[in-house]
Amino acid sequence: MSNVVESNALDVYLPYADELEQTGSTLIPAGLVFTEDEVIRLEGLQAQIAEETVTNGDAGDTHDIYVRRIMVDRAGELPTVVNQPFSGGILDILYGEPRAQILAALFRSDERFHIRRCQMNRMTANSFIGLHLDAASNPDYDYSMIVQLGRSFEGGDFVVHDDSGKQHAYRASYGSVLVTTCKYRHEVSKVTAGERNSLVYFYSRHGEANRRSQ
């Protein structure tokens, strides 16, 4: 899957940019944002980070997941990379070429977007992520990107609730990338079998301290 590196035909991303603009979310197949080798490297790096159990999110939501933290984004502070050197290796991949061109195509913007928060979410049978709004964690979050590293699981759909009250469910597969605006509420339905492992990170135009109210 070397097309990420070799292709300069950014129009391949236009249908996904259209869907993102129209619905607030889009699911991009494996091989278009990260190469197969990059996905394997992400798997290996994240596996070396200690994980913690999380049952309450910082947006007033309830969870039942395991988390490995790569970059934290606390109110009133600048984003901080934790769990080096493995986190640094992950961020090198996320910022690596040609991601800037891909983001410009997907977001239809030449502005610089900063990664402000990044973590692994591991979900086992009966795990779930409750309904929440990412902008409640940081009002400056623009988009989230979710790289699916789980190879075999059932359930665990990513469900977006738009402003009209409609629900859009996305079922990710290994290596796919889900991009969604942080302005819509969403949840992850209960995993019924296997393990759903996702690398989740948030892009923002704002690169300074987190302006969320203390």
Give me a quick take on this structure.
The protein is an alpha+beta fold and 214 residues long.
Query: What is the tally of beta strands?
Result: 14
Average predicted confidence as pLDDT: 89
Helix content: 10-25%
CATH architecture: Sandwich
The 3D shape can be described as globular
| CATH-defined superfamily | q2cbj1_9rhob like domain
Beta-strand percentage range = 35-45%
Radius of gyration: 16 Å
Count of helical regions: 5
List low-pLDDT spans. Answer: none
Briefly, what CATH class?
Answer: Mainly Beta
Structural summary, described in words:
This protein is 21% helix and 35% strand. The chain is of the alpha+beta class and 214 residues long. It has one domain: Jelly Rolls, CATH 2.60.120.620. Helix 3 packs antiparallel against helix 4. The longest helix has 11 residues. The chain is globular and about 40 Å long. The chain starts with a helix and ends in a 10-residue tail after the last strand.
